[in-house]
Amino acid sequence: MNAWAEEIGAELLGRHVVIHNYRQGLGRTRVRRDNAPVEIEVSDTPLTSLHPHGNQILQALVLHELGHHVCDFGEPGFRTVDKRSRREGLAAMMNILMDERLERQLRSRRPEWGAYFDRLGAYAFARNEHNVPIGAYARLIEREVSEVEGAIRRGDIPGRLLQPDAGESEMRVALRDSDMLRIPGLLPTHVAFMMCFRCGFDPQSCADPRVAEAINLVPRNLKELSHAKLLPLARELANLIGARENLTQELTLLQQKVQDNPDVLGQLGEGIDRLVECNQLPGWERKDASKIRMTPPSRAQIKREVPLHVPGARF
After folding, report:
1. Is the Cα dihedral 234, 235, 236, 239 positive or negative?
2. What is the sign of the dihedral through the CA atoms of 76, 80, 85 and 91?
3. Is the pTM of this model over 0.85?
């Protein structure tokens, strides 16, 4: 992977690239000093966890970090806009827009890079169903079990009713990650926007209509906008969905919900962890930063991708 990163770095930047292993998240980089090598840090967890698309996820991480040097750090006015967005409490929204902008720019260079970014965008949430006791679901949404059963049958709330497991009397409910978007008041609007804009969920399924409205405000030519033009867009989006300084507080409340309702929200919490590791959301206290979410295939379907091996590589 080191050799691949150096080759792509030379193509995109015309500079030497040094890649380090990163243990606190999935990837990061910094503004480089003049004439200094470009340094990026990425985690090898997508490979060591045996994720079926680990190699492509790792390549996407490398491309994303290099993309900041191509599309952000060296552009005129970046530092001024960055400082102003932080003063206005818009850093989180600006980061989302800049990440999407740089990935769209890189997608236009090579189709296969777009496929890598699709893997990275999808990996945070497994999108497979998980079964939870109907009583736990009822406690989460603060309703009686009988009300929940009736509401599911009518299609008023998300979920699919299942018969009790062997030896149990309580019905169970099949829920998907996307169902979390349909539960009113569960997710901060910023997180719901993030899941739809960057991870591919349907904004029309959100309980909060502001999410779809916000995504419709993002112009199709986002990749062509300067940082100076991104700032008023970030301001408009943040004003619409309320994503400013209170985001960290909202995430803290969501984390408490996850801890109080592990049967229902455990997988959602892991998905949010992945967004934090990708620097898509401010950090919250993570119990295990090494998990990689994936839809479990059958053993016959598992084909581990062969990682790019270079003698002397760091990982």
Report:
1. positive
2. positive
3. no
pLDDT tier at 198, thresholds 50, 70, 90: confident
pLDDT the model gives residue 8: 85
The DSSP-derived string for the chain is -HHHHHHHHHHHHSS-EEEEE-SSSSEEE-PPPTTPPEEEEE-SHHHHTT-TTHHHHHHHHHHHHHHHIIIIITSTTHHHHHHHHHHTT-HHHHHHHHHHHHHHHHHTT-HHHHHHHHHHHHHT-----EEEEHHHHHHHHT--HHHHHHHHHHTSSS-EEEPPPTT--S-EEEE-GGGGGGSTTSS-HHHHHHHHHHH---GGG-SSTHHHHHHHHS-TTGGG--HHHHHHHHHHHHHHHT-STTHHHHHHHHHHHHHH-HHHHHHHHHHHHHHHHTTSS-----S-TT----PPPPTTT--PPPPP--TT---
**Cα 238 → chain centroid:** 18
What whole-number distance in Å separates Cα of residue 80 and Cα of residue 99?
18
Specify the pLDDT at position 134.
Answer: 95
pLDDT 10s digits, 36-94: 677 777 777 777 777 788 888 888 888 988 888 888 887 889 999 999 999 998 988 99
Calpha distance 267→270 (Å, rounded):
5
Higher pLDDT, 40 or 141: 141
Strand pairing report for 130-133 and 172-175: antiparallel
| Neighbouring-strand partners of residue 231 | none
Tokens representing residue 64 in the block: 């994303």
Residue 83 CB: number of other CB atoms within 10 A? 11
